User: What shape does this take?
Amino acid sequence: MSHCRKRCKRQLTKVARYFYRFLTGTLTQDSIEDDFELSTVCHRPEGLEKLQEQTKFTKKELQVLYRGFKNECPSGVVNEDTFKVIYSQFFPQGDSSTYAHFLFEAFDTNKNGSVSFEDFVIGLSIILRGTINDRLNWAFNLYDLNKDGCITKEEMLDIMKSIYDMMGKYTYPCMQEDAPREHVETFFQKMDRNNDGVVTIDEFIESCQKDENIMQSMQLFDNVI
Amino acid sequence: MATGVAAWLPFARAAAIGWMPVANCPMPPAPREHSKKQDELIILNVSGRRFQTWRTTLDRYPDTLLGSTEKEFFYNEETKEYFFDRDPDAFRSVLNFYRTGKLHYPRYECISAFDEELAFFGIIPEIIGDCCYEEYKDRKRENAERLMDDQEENKDSKLPNMNFRETMWRAFENPHTSTMALVFYYVTGFFIAVSVITNVVETVPCGSTPNQKDVPCGERYTVAFFCMDTACVMIFTVEYLLRLFAAPSRYRFMRSVMSIIDVVAILPYYIGLVMTNNEDVSGAFVTLRVFRVFRIFKFSRHSQGLRILGYTLKSCASELGFLLFSLTMAIIIFATVMFYAEKGSSSSKFTSIPASFWYTIVTMTTLGYGDMVPKTIAGKIFGSICSLSGVLVIALPVPVIVSNFSRIYHQNQRADKRRAQKKARLARIRIAKKGSSNAYLQSKRNGLLNELLDLTGSEEEEQHMNKTSSLLESQHHHLLHCLEKTTAHEFVDEQLFEQNCIEGAQFSRSPSLSSQEGFTGTCCTHRSRKRIPLPNASLSTTHTHTHTQGLQELSAIHIQCGDQPSLSTSSRSSLNMKSSERSRINCRGQQITTAVISLPSPTNFPPDGDGHSPANPIPAPPTINTTTSSNIVKVSAL
Assistant: This one.
């Protein structure tokens, strides 16, 4: 009962304040909270030399990368929405937001919800300039959604669905409902050595090294930049 | 793919690492970068101001000038930069488009200049960002309206081949084109005024007859008014029929508003004629007379202000509709409230809700006649609220209508002013143009006289003549000369041309003409190149097309050196008689006839030419044989 009365009182004060503002003409007031949003977070990378040490990119490559990065994200950090928007521009037919989300999780190493230029460049360095093992490690990290060291079938299914989502509706042959699931089955058959339903990092790397196709495709990344 | 994020493509390709392990089939080979050239800075020199940007920035939009290989046309090898001879201020916006992906329209820039820059750089204006798009579209619309006004002016120019009907229609639509039209315009205006005044005066009580009350003038002087009415209706009918006849599309004319007004104005009279003094119908007939007042709308043809008002109301139709709708809503609400508020009081005038409508309307428009007044307190309170809200509701759409009217009115004022200024502007432009064409003719004369002086060998005059004309000018003159040679006609001055026409027409037979069969000239508007055989035949028509006399008289320099027959080529404007039997004029100091002397009023010839006129007049040799084979026609001379 008192709860009701409290709420009533609160509403009444609200109405009274409204009428007061109506009479004095200060109805539309700039609230103070708006001001805080204006100050944007700005992040600056540490320094060119330091990044050069941390990554395997040359100075010029870093410059080119940073220019592109800063153009799209003037504040110096990418949040997940911007990330998704940028990535979706490369895949206009399908829905790439889920895969972008996974990518974001993989790039965001310190788990603070935003990807700075350092994270970005470090990740790129591993993929584009790292050894094959590094790359496989990174891919495993991407698949392992909860970062517990092994990939379960559900995680793999999520990843697979997100990849298939990027294809969109108009494919040839027509996309079947269970295509992702089947693909996951194939994957697990190939990767899961001891058939325990999960794929650990060692199994993953071992199976990948045995597969010709995967090895060859990993070498595609040498010439990206 | 949005080229703005082209910089992120390496990232997108790197992200494909997630697909590799799960793929079942091999990946296609990656495209090789043949020239792994580093990103380089490009210098764009726009009228001296240097802009620098990365090459990849420009490559973002490959279907524009800067993004494609088209810019190579502007590459300057020595300075290793791209030079554009354009406006550097406008280029700023263009380059920013490449940098940010958004095209902005600067407010200070002229809209057509901006459009030209965009067109030059191959950017379509539709991609102007949302922030500036409204402004751009507004200014573009304004500009288009202005240009349309100007174009409508050009339509006034007289078209040569207009038949009677078209002339009449033009006379009706634009009274200032001819005097007849103006007379007609004023006469109709006068009669409209007369008709309206008689309608008004008809109802004034004029002097009482001894037996009864005042009778209106209409009944006292029936015959006079009837005659006046008939006269006016005659004029209006004739006018309407003439317009109907002259209209290019009769059906469309009949549907137009003005013609409907015309019809409505004259119809009551005819109906009145037809109908006899039938008792039942005469009541309706009296009502029809009301329509005679529509004659006043015929004034809208005469007054531009009325037309503007009408146009404004049409263009504000939506605001007016809104006003009407909101007023109706308010009226109904307040009428209901007042009715129920006043229901209790005795002898209340608010007998029903529709009866309260009158009170509400009168109150909301703040008229307040006072024939219906609320008596209860509640009624008074609601009545006051009603009047306050009435003021608000009416005041809201009115500024929109007013601003629309003022915009259209000012536009019309501007159009009128521009029309008046345009004449002066065009005259000035014509003078400037004539200057340049005169330059060509002048240079021709100079050239001819130069040759003349060459042959006569007088040095000092030659130097005087040798004005250095710029390379551009000389090339332009050369071009015009080539055209002359191609068409076998020559450029002349306006006055000369008219004189040729006159002379050609006036010329009576002369023996010298008999030999000049080959010479045809054209003048006046009909530039037909008929070979009129003999002068006699040609001169019979007023549209004579021979200037044989003129040609002869206007013969140019017959410079013949030696036995060369075709000396017509040596002088540009020679009378092209290529007969070898021509009077031999030796090259040195002999009879050098210049055209100057031949013309009756050589107004625009350099005085120098006169100095060379020999004593004897033009050798008008009857022996001029028409052996000329070419069709080179001499239209006039220097």
Strands of chain A lie at 77-79, 114-116, 150-152, 198-200. The two ends of chain A are 69 Å apart (CA to CA). The CA atoms of residues 189 and 195 of chain A lie 8 Å apart. Chain A touches chain B through 47 residues (CB under 8 Å).
